[in-house]
């Protein structure tokens, strides 16, 4: 995740990943939430192989 991305870009990415509470998050919180969501999706994808 690029922590230098704009907050708007991070918000849009969080929206696509279904991150709840994104509208009230700071930029740093969005980065952390996106990282968690990406890890979760990766685990889910690997477990269905």
Question: Could you characterize the architecture of this molecule?
Answer:
- The chain is mostly helical and 49 residues long.
- The radius of gyration is 11 Å and the shape is elongated.
- It has one domain (7-47).
- Helix 1 (7-17) packs parallel to helix 2.
- The model has no long low-confidence stretch (mean pLDDT 94).
- It contains 2 helices and no strands.
- The N and C termini lie far apart (25 Å).
- The longest helix has 21 residues, at 27-47.
Mean pLDDT over the residues: 94
Q: Describe the global form.
A: elongated
Number of helices: 2
* Quaternary structure classification: single chain
Helix content: 55-70%
Largest sheet: none
Low-confidence stretches: none
Query: What is the beta-strand fraction?
Result: under 5%
Category from helices, strands and their pairing: mainly alpha
Q: How many runs of DSSP E, i.e. beta strands? A: 0
Radius of gyration based on Cα positions: 11 Å
Distance between the termini: 25 Å
Number of separate structural domains: 1
- H/E element sequence: HH
Brief overview, please?
With 49 residues, the protein is mainly α. 65% of the residues lie in helices and 0% in strands. It has one domain (7-47).
List keywords for this structure.
49 residues; 0% strand; mainly alpha
Helices and strands, with pairings:
Blueprint: H1 7-17, H2 27-47
Helix pairs in contact: 1-2
């Amino acid at each position: 995740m690029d922590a230098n991305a704009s907050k708007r870009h991070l918000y849009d990415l969080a929206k696509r990943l279904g991150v709840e509470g994104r509208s009230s998050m700071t930029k740093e919180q969005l980065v952390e939430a996106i990282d968690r969501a990406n890890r979760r999706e990766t685990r889910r994808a690997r477990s269905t192989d």
